[in-house]
Specification:
The chain is built from 2 helices and no strands. It is mainly alpha-helical and about 100 residues long. It has one domain.
Length: about 100
Amino acid sequence: MKKTTNRRPSGAVKFYLACGLIFVGVVLLFSAFWVPPLGIIHESILVAFGEILTFSGALIGIDYTYRYKLLQLRSGLREMVRDEIVRETGEEDKEV
């Protein structure tokens, strides 16, 4: 029986990958200034840069958005359970 492992990249790996992609996009834009016609950035370069930024933003944004929502959900559930226990037992939590 094979044991499967969940190999999802960590948040730091995604962040560094997104930063690297943004750097590649900026290099792509600036390199377009030195390729004929000089001083003009072709629209295909702008489209490629936009796609790189969109993908980088998705890597960063989606991960952090859902991590934040999960933390909110957990804290809300803990509060609901604590309130239900207090209601059932009729005792307030004693602070330590």
